[in-house]
């Protein structure tokens, strides 16, 4: 467990460094995905399910699923098992990055 705590501390430092860069490189995009997952617990999604079933997850969400209002991002979409999902992101920094 101690090793995990040490690794987690290093990982968090890397996240802060990567998200703070001005350039939108691969590392910054991956960090944004990790932060999004951590904030929302949203399922990853699958292109095949999006195409066949019209259900979505993090990797298949579209702009039409998003609304921005007062530094908040809201996602409304059909997720796993055709359940309508309503996900709000109140974290201002994360909302701005999205």
Automatic annotation (TrEMBL):
<dbReference type="GO" id="GO:0003917">
    <property type="term" value="F:DNA topoisomerase type I (single strand cut, ATP-independent) activity"/>
</dbReference>
<feature type="domain" description="DNA topoisomerase I catalytic core eukaryotic-type">
    <location>
        <begin position="3"/>
        <end position="90"/>
    </location>
</feature>
<dbReference type="InterPro" id="IPR014711">
    <property type="entry name" value="TopoI_cat_a-hlx-sub_euk"/>
</dbReference>
<protein>
    <submittedName>
        <fullName>DNA topoisomerase I, catalytic core</fullName>
    </submittedName>
</protein>
<dbReference type="InterPro" id="IPR011010">
    <property type="entry name" value="DNA_brk_join_enz"/>
</dbReference>
<dbReference type="Pfam" id="PF01028">
    <property type="entry name" value="Topoisom_I"/>
</dbReference>
<dbReference type="InterPro" id="IPR013500">
    <property type="entry name" value="TopoI_cat_euk"/>
</dbReference>
<dbReference type="GO" id="GO:0003677">
    <property type="term" value="F:DNA binding"/>
</dbReference>
<dbReference type="GO" id="GO:0006265">
    <property type="term" value="P:DNA topological change"/>
</dbReference>
<keyword id="KW-0413">Isomerase</keyword>
């Amino acid at each position: 467990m101690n090793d995990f705590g040490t690794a987690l501390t290093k990982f968090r430092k890397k996240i802060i460094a990567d998200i703070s860069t001005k350039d939108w490189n691969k590392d910054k995009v991956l960090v944004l995905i990790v932060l999004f997952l951590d904030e929302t617990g949203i399922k990853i999604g699958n292109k095949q399910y999006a195409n066949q079933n019209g259900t979505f997850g993090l990797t298949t969400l579209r702009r039409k699923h998003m609304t921005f209002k007062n530094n908040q991002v809201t996602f409304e979409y059909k997720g796993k098992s055709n359940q309508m999902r309503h996900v709000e992101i109140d974290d201002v920094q994360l909302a701005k990055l999205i």
